[in-house]
Amino acid sequence: MPSSPTAARTGSTSTTASGAGRYLLPGIAVLCVALVIASMLVGEYHITIGGLLHGDSEMWRMFFISRVPRTLALIFAGVAMSFSGVIMQRLTQNRFVEPTTAGTAEWAGLGILLCFMYIPGASPLVRMAVATTMAFLGTVVFLAIINRVRARKTAIVPLVGLMLGAVIGAVTTYIAIEGNMLQAVVAWRSGGFAHIVRGFYEPLWAVLVVAVACYLMANYFTIAGLGRDVATSLGLDYGRTVAIGVTMVALASGVTSVVVGFIPFLGLVVPNVVSMLRGDDVRKNLPWIGVFAVVLVVACDLIGRVVVRPMEIPTSVVMGVVGATAFLAIILSRRFRDSL
Amino acid sequence: MTVSDGASAPAVGAGRTGRFSWRMRMGVAIALAAAALVLFLLIRTGADDVMRWDFRFGPSFDRRFRTASAIVLAAFCQGVATVLFHTVTHNRILTPSIIGLDSLYVLIQTVGVAVVGARFVDNSDSILQFLLQTAGMVLFAGVLYRWMFSGRFASLFLLLLAGVVMGLAFRAVSEFLQRLIAPSDFDALQIKLFGRLGSVNTELLPIAAVICAVVGVIVWRRRRVLDVLLLGREPATSLGVNHQRELTIALVLIAILVSVSTALVGPLTFFGFIIATLAYQVSGDWRHRATLPMSVLIGVFTLAAGQFVLTNVFYAAGTLTVIIEFCGGVAFLAILLLRKGTM
Which regions span the lipid bilayer (chain A) (predicted)? Predict the structure, then answer.
C-alpha cells in the first residue's frame, strides 16, 4: 500500500474535500490578487495607487525598477518550487519529496560555489547553467538511490534525500572554508528578494517554460507515478518521462537558486495542501498549486519586509519557519497518519 | 513503526563468527585503539622526534591529554548513539544528528553570538554554559519524543520527520542571523560550528565523562534487550519486551549522548555513521556486546590515528573533523549507491 498511497486514495478524498475546496479556493484566488497588489505597494520608497493613477512619473519609474521585478520574481520562484515539488512527488511516488528534501537544492548550491571559485566573473546565465547541471546530476543520483530502495516507505525517502543533501552541504562547506568563501555561501543560501531589481530577475522567465511544460506533461507524470511497470504497460516511455521531469526540476531549481537562494518547504506544503482540498488530479490542480504557492511566497515576503522595517528578513527564513509549521501540521493530520 | 522492513534485520545471521571470534577481533581493536592513543599522547612533535625516540612530558602533554580525552569521549558518544539509533530505527543509513540536535546547537551558538557578540563564544566552554546547552538540547529532544510518542501520534516516522523539519527551520534562522553578525564575530562563531578536538576545556571533561559513564552503564545493562529489539517490533513484543518503553529510553539516551558530544567538540554528522558502519563489518557478531564497544574503539582509533598523522605529518591538526566528515559523507554516498536490497 505505501508504494502509491496517492493513487489508492484519490477517489474518496476528492469527493469529501470538494465542499471545503468550493469556498476556500476562490478565497485563495482573491487573497492572491490582494497580496500581489500589496507586494507592489509595500516598501521603503513610497508608492500609492493614487500616485500611480495621477501619473507620477518618478513613482512609475521606481515601480518598474523595483516593485514589479520583485513581485514577478516571487511569483516565478513560487511557481518553480511548487511545480518542481509536484513533479518530484509524482516521479518518486512520495509526498515528502521536493528539491530541498531530495538534495537537489544543495547540489545547485555546490554548483554556484564552484562558479564563485573558478569563474569569478561569471554572468548569471553561466552560473545558472552550472547550477542547473549540478541540480540535474543531484536529482539523478537521488533517483538512482531511491530506485534501489525496495521498501519505499513514505518517510525513509525524504530522510535519505536529506542525508544526501547534508553530504553535499558538507562538501560545499568544506570547499567554502578552503576557499575562504563561507560567509558568501551562507549569504547566498539564505538569499532573498531584497536585491531583485530590473536586470537581475529576467532569467526567471525561464520558469514559465517549465510551468507550461509541466502543465502539458501533467498526465504523463501522473501515469509515471503509478510505477515503472504499470506506466510501461499503459504505453508510456517511462525513461523519457523521468528524464524530462528531472530536467524540468533541475532547470527550475537551478535558475531559482541562483537568483533568490533556497526556498524551503514550498514544494512540499503547497502540493499537499492543494491535494487535501481538491484531490489528486495533477493537471487540474496545477493552476491552483501555482496560485497557492504565490500566496504563500508573497505572504512570507511581506511578513519579512514589514516586521523589521526598514530592514528585511529573507523570505527563505520566514518560509522556513512558516513552512516547518505547516509541514508539521500536515504530517500530523489524520490523512497522512494513515499513509505513514 | 520501524523505519524499514523486517527484511533488513541483521543480515549477519545468528552470531556469525567468521574465521576469528568476536573476542579476538575486539582484542585487536582494543590494542590498535590503545596504540593509537599512546602514540598520539607520547610523541612530542614531528617525525624527527619519532626517529630519536624522544618522548617528553611537558605542558604540551597536558594539551594532548585533553585532546585525547575529547577523542575518547566523542568516539564513545557518537559510536554508542549511532549504534543505538540504528537499532531502534531498524535502519543503518541514518544518523542521530538527523533529528535536528546539531541544528539546534548551531542555532544556540548563533543566537548567543548575535546577542552577546564574540564574548559568547569565548565563554562557551564554561561549565554553566555547557550544562545549559546540553540540557536545552536534551529538553528539546524530550519534548519532541513526548509529543510524538504520546498516544495519538505514536510513530517513529513522524518523530524523525518532525525532527528533520525543525532542524531545517533552525538552520534557516541560524543562517539569517549569521548574515547579520559582523565578520569578526562570524569568524569566532565558525570555530564553534565545526568539530574541534584540540580546544576542549579541561573543566568540562570530568562532567562529560561522568555523564558518558552513567549512560554507558545503562546501555550495557540493556544490551540483551537491544539485541531483541533488532528483531523488529512484533517479534520483540512477543518475546516480552515493552517496545515503546525501550524505544523511548534509547532515544533519550541518544539525545543525551549526541548533546554531550556536540556541546563538547561541536557537531559531527557523519562520524557516527562511519564508525558504526565499520563496526558492523568488523565486529564479527551482530549482538550489541560486540557492536557497541567495537564502534567506540574504531572511533578512538580513527580519531587518534588521524590526529596523530595530521599533527606529525601534515601539521594541520585543526581540520581532522572536517576531513572525517568529508570521508564519512563520501562513504555514506558510496554505500547508498552500491548497496542492494532494502533500507
Answer: 23-48, 68-88, 100-119, 125-146, 155-175, 204-223, 243-274, 286-307, 313-332
Q: How far apart are CA A46 and CA A67, in angstroms?
A: 11
Name the maximum alpha-carbon separation found in chain A. Answer: 65
pLDDT of A280 above 50:
yes
Determine the structural domain holding residue A134 and report its residue range: 12-339
Residue in A with minimal Cα distance to B337: A145
Asked whether residue A3 is domain-assigned, the answer is: no
Angstrom distance (rounded) from CA A177 to CA A172: 9
- Identify the residue whose cell numbers are 581493536: B29
Asked if A178 has any chain B CB less than 8 Å from its own CB, the reply is no
Domain count across chain B: 1
- pLDDT tier for residue B300 given thresholds of 50, 70 and 90: very high
Neighbour-count burial of A44, counting CB atoms closer than 10 A to its CB (0-12 exposed, 13-18 middle, 19+ buried) = exposed
Of A162, A189, A317, the CB nearest to B173: A317
* Chain B residues closer than 8 Å to A166 by CB: 98, 269-270, 329
What's the rounded Cα separation, in Å, for the pair B291 and A240? 45
pLDDT for residue B77: 93
CATH code for position B151 = 1.10.3470.10
**Which of B193, B167, B4, B192 is closest to B98 using CA atoms?**
B167
More confident residue, A50 or B130: B130
Q: Is residue B243 part of a domain?
A: yes
Of B93, B172, B340, Cβ closest to residue A321: B172
> Residues B339, A147: contact at Cβ < 8 Å?
no
Amino acid at B312: N
CATH code at position A161? 1.10.3470.10
A317–B161 C-beta distance less than 8 A = no
Q: Do A151 and B326 touch (CB under 8 A)?
A: no
Query: Among all residues of chain A, which has the CA nearest to that of B191?
Result: A177
HSE-CB of A222 using CA atoms within 13 angstroms: 17
Cis before A203? omega within 30: no
Lowest average pLDDT, out of A56-60, A197-201, A220-224, B32-36, goes to A197-201
Range of the domain at B128: 67-338
For residue B168, give the nearest of A154, A190, A264 by CB distance: A264
Asked if B94's CB is within 8 angstroms of A163's CB, the reply is yes
In a domain, A4, yes or no: no
